[in-house]
Amino acid sequence: MIGSVISATISQAEQDYAWSGSLEVTNPASFGRIQINDSIDLELGGEVFKLIVDNKTIERDGVSMPRLTVSVISPTARFTTPRATPLDQVWGAPVWARDAAEEAVGEAIQWELVNWLITGGRLAVHEASPLDVVRTIAAAAGGLVESLPDGTLRVRHRFPVAVPSWATASVDYVLTDESDNLSCRESHILRTRVNKVLVRGYLPSGTGFLSVEVDSRPDGLNHGRTSFFAGDTAHLLVHAGDDVALEDPLVSAGVILPGGWQVITVTQDLVFNRVATATLNKPAISIDSVIWLGNDLGAITLESDNRTVSVPNAGVAIARVTYRSMARSWGLSSPSTIAGLSEYPVQVHLTGTTGENLGTGEIFCQRGDGAFRGADISNPLLTTDEAKRSCGRAEIDAGEALQEVSLTCLHRPGLMPGQLVEVHDALMGRSWRGKITSVSHAAQSNKLITSLELLRYVESSL
């Protein structure tokens, strides 16, 4: 369909939902006939990728022939914006995680994650793409969404093999400097050790609410600004529940000082999907107005947690609610330069504590002595201990001592993120094992190269 292809690239990394790449072609007539969403079968070294046309580009320099490029992506792109129709749905009855995900996309998924029963009413979406639904379900249990070369959606655990088991598990591929490896680059990334985490299958009550945002109000402390230069002061708004004791914020650079309390007016569309309750984005001190956009379910009542609102009648409706919320302001003053740089990021860390007690919906996941506790995880979709353990293991595996390695080798078909490989390279020292996090194939003329990003386990002395 597209004539002669002189180069091609195709890649997928963790957190991607599709293979994507580009083809450079030489046939102007064929290029002109290409339409967005046309199907393409790309064969690289015996491996076939089912793709669709995402966009196409012409580049002219006025001297040589135009450069004709076709961007391609897996057909799973039809499950997300702008190709997909947003969903408004609530699963009122208990539903298996896989069944809900497959219902959202309307086809089978290669499911390689724990499958658990989600309590009725816990899963509800508004203006969400089908892919958003699948990602939300998968992420709850520590999973990722990817695409297989044939265009099938795949849901797998972030770490299909637990990190401490890499040394003894069966590997998917063995790569050697004799027949595969062309280059290898190691880097060291400092990581926060985690070997214990609390996972709860519910969201803490409204009194445990904590959020922070830049004051973007046109008449606010930043006068509508949302981006800042070195040396500026950026004002932040912190919303906290009644029972939250806010600790002093920490910043990676500069100084942060407390300001006064601000009364913030918020307008929010509340969606009722055959239920009689909905949740405000921020704790409210008062509800000023309610406009029903269609069906009217009755008077809205603000519950004691200051975020939940209830109506007399369950139904399908949307209410546009305007309410007031209290926020504490903080001023972040940044230095004019850092290490000679006038452009740099600044991280703000806020922590709040509540008096909530451990309940039956919570479990601890621990590896080893549990001396390094990570942040608590709360997700109402985690309605079984099996799903909570899956989520907790993903966090603990991510908290192991992992080193990023980039490897370039001769083309190997069948490589996918999540696979475990064993690497033998005499010049890099002893052999080691790692998990693939990114795969990229590049073909030009008769040369076909594969580039991998991997995570290598480095035993920690901590």
Description:
A hairpin with a 6-residue loop joins strand 1 and strand 2. The protein has helices at residues 28-33, 97-105, 130-140, 385-398; strands at residues 5-13, 20-25, 39-44, 47-59, 67-73, 87-90, 95-96, 110-112, 117-118, 124-128, 143-147, 153-157, 173-176, 181-187, 196-200, 210-214, 233-240, 245-246, 250-251, 255-279, 286-292, 301-302, 308-333, 348-349, 352-353, 362-366, 377-378, 402-410, 420-424, 432-444, 447-457. Helix 2 (97-105) packs antiparallel against helix 3. The protein starts with a strand and ends in a 5-residue tail after the last strand. Among the domains are: 5-73, no CATH class; 163-191 and 401-457, Elongation Factor Tu (Ef-tu), domain 3, CATH 2.40.30.150; 206-353, no CATH class. It is mostly beta strands and 462 residues long. The strands form eight sheets. Strands 1, 2, 3, 4, 5, 13, 14, 28, 29, 30 and 31 form an eleven-stranded mixed beta sheet that branches. Strands 16, 17, 20, 21, 22 and 23 form a six-stranded antiparallel beta sheet that branches. Residues 356-360 have low confidence and may be disordered.
